[in-house]
Design a protein that fits this description.
Layout: H1 2-22, H2 29-52, H3 56-61, H4 69-104, H5 112-137, H6 141-159, H7 166-182, H8 188-216
Amino acid sequence: MYESREHLQTLTEIRSLMERSSKFLSLSGLSGVSAGLIALAGAFVVSMRIQTDLFDAFLSNGAGDYHTDLSKQDIRQFLVTVGLVVLVLALLSGTYFTVRQARRQGQTVWNQSSQRLLRAMFVPLATGGIFCLALLQYNLIWLTFPVTLIFYGLALLNGSKYTLRDVESLAYCEIGLGLLSLFLPGYNLLTWAVGFGVLHIIYGLAMYYKYERTLTA
């Protein structure tokens, strides 16, 4: 009985070592929380602009023939600017917390596992980004909100096999919310804020209490 327990423990340790060598396990829950807060701030900025502009017709149904070409260009430029600022700040905060988490675990961030993760996520993210630029070009602004959720969810789903399996649950939530948003055009900004803001915060807190709290205690 004692030997069998020893063998079982040995197999468990071997399995853990193999998993650590093949998967990137240093994702920080705090990076999800910070990304969520930044996304909510970006959604708030857009919301304030909507309330003070003739912006909502584009976001609700893609119509707005009464708008001038200049206003359409201003809308596109404003959304792209806010989106880029949110993306850059989220990446910076995510990198900071992930690097800190990796150091606490005695791991390096840039390794074969993280490279496989980035490669798996790159194609869906790049495809979604180009698709969104095309939608903006054709003034289908309201569609960019659900599309970003859907392609982001697909990227998470594709990358989940190279990192914590909990990411898969977040991926399904993002995809589902994006698909729902397609049929609720008047609530695109709200669903976007829930997807990139609220879901990230909930996921990040769950990951923090599940994996990281013991390391910071």
